[in-house]
Amino acid sequence: MMRPDIVVIGAGMIGASAALALARAGVSVTLIGPREPDDKATATGPFASHYDEGRITRIADPDPLWAGWAAESIACYPDIEAASGIRFHHPVGSVRVAPAGSPGLARARAAARALGAAVEEIDGRELAARCPAFATHEGVAVLWEAAPAGHVNPRRKVAALKVAALRAGARLIETEATAVATGPGGAEVALASGERVACGRVLVATGPHARDRRLVPVLPDLKPVGRTVVLFEVAADDPQFRAMPSFIVGLDPAAPDTSFYGVAPVPYPGGGLWLKAGNGCIDSPLPDGAAVRDWFQSGGSQEEARRIRAEVLTVFPALSAARWRTEPCALVETVSGRPFIGRVPGWERIGIALGCNGYAAKSCIALGRIAAGMICDDGWSGSQEAGPLRPVWAAP
Ligand SMILES: Cc1cc2nc3c(=O)[nH]c(=O)nc-3n(C[C@H](O)[C@H](O)[C@H](O)COP(=O)(O)OP(=O)(O)OC[C@H]3O[C@@H](n4cnc5c(N)ncnc54)[C@H](O)[C@@H]3O)c2cc1C
Fold this sequence. Notes:
Layout: E1 6-9, H1 13-24, E2 29-32, E3 55-57, H2 64-84, E4 89-90, E5 94-99, H3 103-114, E6 119-123, H4 124-130, E7 140-145, E8 150-152, H5 154-167, E9 171-173, E10 177-183, E11 186-191, E12 196-199, E13 201-204, E14 222-234, E15 246-249, E16 260-267, E17 273-278, E18 284-285, H6 289-297, H7 302-315, E19 324-334, E20 340-344, E21 347-354, H8 360-376
The protein binds flavin-adenine dinucleotide (FAD).
Flavin-adenine dinucleotide binds near residues 13, 46 and 364.
């Protein structure tokens, strides 16, 4: 096997995006990561944050950096869909509902406008008129973001990124990486299959398995957490949910920037159209790989599900009789609220792109481009782009 310049560990949203950026830049790259397990109950390998059918995609965000990464990424969707032949983007629009005067909504509006996104502010009545699934709420402001905002199918998006990367010259090995070793001449990645892959440098993008000392010898100061989502079944012919945007909704004037979020009904494996919602009200810490697996093999938190369902029914009362179920998911929080992209101190051949804080499904193409630059360019850490993404390392 030809020795690749770069091995990317983690064939998820960031890893596949980085492999695509590297391959298109003419770098020899091997992407390592297993497929989604067929039977999650008995799976012993890694799990991922992208095992789902719907993720909000929008530019409006209170953090101008996240807004910029989203805008850059969304602009690439048509190209990735064409390069792969896989459709993942549904530009149905997106709304952010908040108590009138919410500072977060004002910041999101300003960031979106600065990037030229098609946003307008309407009230709760107009929202209910445009999309009757929403109950009318007084005293709220609604930021309506038109297409290309909407949702992406994260499973299909990862598949599209991988196909596009392969077509650009990347190699894919669908197995788990079990160790990384480095020396003066390069690095070596050991695989669960027993194979070893020699390379120049390694980029680790393992999502919820971020705390794995076998791959990253100095742990970044980040927190993988389990989250629960609730899925509500919606009849295919229900007119209330037709032309529905994805949504972030906060109604509490005492906590104007807390919210729940969700995606318009989409088909799920096993049949039916399901509206998905979550609110991140309970963090279930996942300190290591075993805890991540246990979490994904559980049904999630019933307490979190109960709270999500109660919030959803205040906004979508038509769902009170709907069949519903829960799914576990996981994301990785950082102190900065932004990803950590940088080299591991003392291990310069290893870089990380971890800690996406629940926002990277829409923005992974920009973050993959940045991670690709970081792992190739020895001067990157001094760049302006590096500053906000600089990893914080846990005390040994
Ligand atoms: C409930 C929920 C809702 C969300 N909603 C949104 C949303 O609406 N909009 C949005 O933009 N984002 C959303 N996100 C966030 C988004 O899904 C994540 O930010 C994104 O998936 C992170 O990408 P990643 O590449 O870091 O991780 P992942 O996509 O999880 O990829 C990591 C990959 O690493 C692999 N891996 C791990 N360990 C190893 C190993 N040892 N060897 C090889 N491979 C390994 C895994 O198999 C996986 O494929 C949501 C997340 C959750 C949990």
